[in-house]
Amino acid sequence: MARPREFDLDAALERAMQVFWAKGYESTSLDDLCAATGLGRSSLYGAFGDKHGLYLDALARYEEGSAARLNEALTRPVPVREAIAGFIARLIDDIVAGPGRRGCFIGNCAAELARDDREAAARVRRSLERIETAFRDALGRAKARGEIVRTADVGALARFFTAGIQGLRLVGKANPDRAALDDIAGVMLRALDR
Amino acid sequence: MARPREFDLDAALERAMQVFWAKGYESTSLDDLCAATGLGRSSLYGAFGDKHGLYLDALARYEEGSAARLNEALTRPVPVREAIAGFIARLIDDIVAGPGRRGCFIGNCAAELARDDREAAARVRRSLERIETAFRDALGRAKARGEIVRTADVGALARFFTAGIQGLRLVGKANPDRAALDDIAGVMLRALDR
DNA sequence: CTCATTATGGACTGATCGATTCATAACACC
DNA sequence: GGTGTTATGAATCGATCAGTCCATAATGAG
């Protein structure tokens, strides 16, 4: 009935996400986005609305992958301590070996524009809640299995790990030093030994 | 010998710092800075060089006050656990009661422009090291006093609290909920009970 | 009082921003 | 093959950006 789209929408979103992740919202221009995706302005606007809409879509895409990795790590059939340790170890690998100081897209978004961008702020809040829930569920199951003491407050621990991961990514962005990050991870994990 | 400056340089820097803190670097325009300080462009450029220089000065000013508060809290003649708990409690008060979602200026800087701004990145790294050192010194003194077990790794604990505070401020920026932040603080402090 | 020096405010610069417009192209349907 | 509909690319929009320039004002030194 009409001319079909000539590009892969998903691939374009992935490229745009990488640019926003690396440069942030304000510092990314539409020319940057066109260059990264290989698309013209018309195609971008036709597919994603405007710059802000594309940013939100990119944020959603990041969160999707991020949450999937976390859930996969936390539902492995191993003790929860090992599962969390494995997740954090891979996180540190990413920070140290990754293409330099991008941090966490969600955290970057929170720091950059959650101030007066209610929609973005709501997305960030939801993302953090999702992470928190994943931890709480995993810790709840572990508690039922007797892996952690019955007096443990899994809700507080879940919030702690959520914040801890953000802190880890932030200081890792400023100084991607494995020894320092391993130190932090080690102390974090000992919150489970009680 | 020449016309004297008509404004208070320190007060102007304080105002500029507040704006950069609240809005970030890119989103703050020179018109914003002129409006906040009450100065004209010529005065700003004459006193601080350019926008980037002013931003770095503002960052330094923030770090000064921030480090002073931390050191004051950590050198109080009380058990280190109490000192740290007091500092974090006041931090949470700031986050919850403060004028909305500014986060930590240093953390905001790290998230926003530490990527390809080497000078800002170096400042952030130095700031975090300063925080880490303050914790390490306080924990070292506490260890010598026998407040924490002799097997404790004060270096790792210092790094942990440094990252933890950043995580606390970040999630607090996204969701300034006292109960959640208190949960996180509670788990963090139990790292000292060993 | 005069002059050299610096501060100030406002006009102005070229560049870049996000967004729109429009002519053209490519399809599905009849 | 004609027609309606959407995609595409280039040109372009007004707004805003950081930064500069210049005429004027305000001081201290001689």
Description of the structure:
The structure is a homodimer of 194-residue chains. Chain A contains nine helices and no strands. Chain A has helices spanning 9-23, 30-37, 41-48, 51-74, 80-97, 105-113, 118-144, 154-174, 178-189. The model of chain A has no long low-confidence stretch (mean pLDDT 96). Chain A has one domain (9-190): Tetracycline Repressor, domain 2. Chain A has 194 residues and is mainly alpha-helical. The interface between A and B is large, with 48 and 48 residues. Chain A binds a DNA duplex (30 and 30 nucleotides) through residues 1-6, 29-31, 39-43, 45-47, 50-51.
Instruction: Count the E strands of chain A.
Output: 0
Number of domains of chain A: 1
Number of helical regions of chain A: 9
What is the chain-wise order of helices and strands of chain A?
HHHHHHHHH
The helix fraction of chain A, in percent, is over 70%
Oligomer: homodimer
- Integer average pLDDT of chain A: 96
- The CATH top-level class label of chain A: Mainly Alpha
Structural classification of chain A: mainly alpha
Report the CATH topology name of chain A: Tetracycline Repressor, domain 2
Poorly predicted tracts of residues of chain A: none
Rg of chain A over CA atoms, rounded to whole Å, is 19 Å
